[in-house]
Amino acid sequence: MLPADPTQRLTLQRRIQEGDLVIAYERHDHMKAIKVTKGSILQNRFGVFNHSHWVGKPFGSKVFSNKNGFIYLLAPTPELWTLVLSHRTQILYIADISFVVMYLEIVPGCLVLESGTGSGSLTTSLARAIAPSGRVCTFDFHEQRAASAREDFEMTGVSSLVTVGVRDIQGEGFPDEFSGKADAVFLDLPQPWLAIPSAGKMLKPDGVICSFSPCIEQVQRSCETLKLKFTDIRTFEILLRTYEVKELSTEVGEVDEGISFRSPPRKKRQHSTATGKDSVATTVMAKPCSEARGHTGYLTFARLKCLA
Ligand SMILES: C[S@@+](CC[C@H](N)C(=O)[O-])C[C@H]1O[C@@H](n2cnc3c(N)ncnc32)[C@H](O)[C@@H]1O
């Protein structure tokens, strides 16, 4: 689990304990969240890993299976959690999340209101950004989703920073107790324009709202409502291009013309002829990820007008 203060970065001093959540990392596209339980095993294509062997090791450790295969045990940071959490809904990914945290000007101590909670992907990053003294109050009208999100926040160690409420935010708006107190509001709802008037009431003067919508028609309708009480309205579509980096070994003389990008420059590793081995060149290759995500949605930001 993350330490009580999630801003306290997990370092090599921090050792894995029983009950901790770890990310079992095989490759960047092959990771799994696991609760460390004495007597339990992880079995995968590399063999059998015994959880008991993990206890006491620092996060980041390379651990070995009975067949000498290995994985890394990584700390469950919000970045990794977003990649391994169970998708109960569509979720926000790192490119949108990082942009949201910056443009909503979220810093330690902020009060952030969010709806819907969904799978809690964004919420986990919001929690780290407002820690140790801020608060995220997130609402979803789906009771089971709210309950699962609470369990996840407990597991990832952010539950002391987050409250999850069950409420129809489009129908009822945010609770009056937050009126004029929120630094930022985030909406990921099918009809955000219905919740925008309430969000405006919740924000402090100069507070910022963000609404995520997959369709431009939703954005247009939200902007019409935003114009009444907000200024500096801007919409962004965040497209991320990820590169896959691989090291390749080829016989000297063989050239793969498909390689378009190399770093560092190709180096030749000449094996001694005495050993009878062929010359081998190692190449580091980077190419755009084939399964890169395209459009996820539009992020619309606006700042509450101060009427004084
Ligand atoms: C796409 S998900 C949010 C995903 C979330 N941003 C994440 O990163 O995991 C949208 C959520 O809004 C909730 N929702 C839809 N209408 C709602 C309403 N009127 N009030 C509250 N929540 C609502 C749904 O139950 C769903 O869980």
Account of the 3D structure:
It is a single chain. By secondary structure, this protein is of the alpha/beta class. It folds into 3 domains: 21-76, Vcp-like ATPase, Chain A, domain 2, CATH 3.10.330.20; 80-239 and 295-304, Vaccinia Virus protein VP39 (Rossmann fold, 3-Layer(aba) Sandwich), CATH 3.40.50.150; 243-288. It is built from 7 helices and 16 strands. It has helices at 78-84, 94-103, 121-130, 143-156, 169-172, 196-202, 216-229, and strands spanning 21-27, 30-35, 41-44, 47-50, 61-64, 70-74, 111-115, 135-140, 162-166, 182-187, 203-213, 230-237, 243-251, 267-269, 280-288, 298-304. The longest helix has 14 residues, at 143-156. It starts with 20 loop residues before the first strand and ends with a strand.
Contiguous runs where pLDDT drops below 50 for at least 5 residues? 254-273
Output the CATH class name of the largest domain.
Alpha Beta
Kindly state the number of beta strands.
Answer: 16
Helical fraction equals 10-25%
Q: Name the overall outline.
A: globular
Please name the CATH architecture of the largest domain. Answer: 3-Layer(aba) Sandwich
What does the radius of gyration come to? Answer: 24 Å
CATH superfamily descriptor of the largest domain? Vaccinia Virus protein VP39
Number of domains: 3
Q: H/E element string?
A: EEEEEEHHEHEHEHEHEHEEEEE
Which structural class do the helices and strands define?
alpha/beta
Q: Sheet bearing the most strands, described?
A: 7 strands, mixed
The portion of residues forming beta strands comes to 25-35%
Q: Ends: how far apart?
A: 46 Å
CATH topology assignment of the largest domain: Rossmann fold
Mean pLDDT over the full residue set: 88
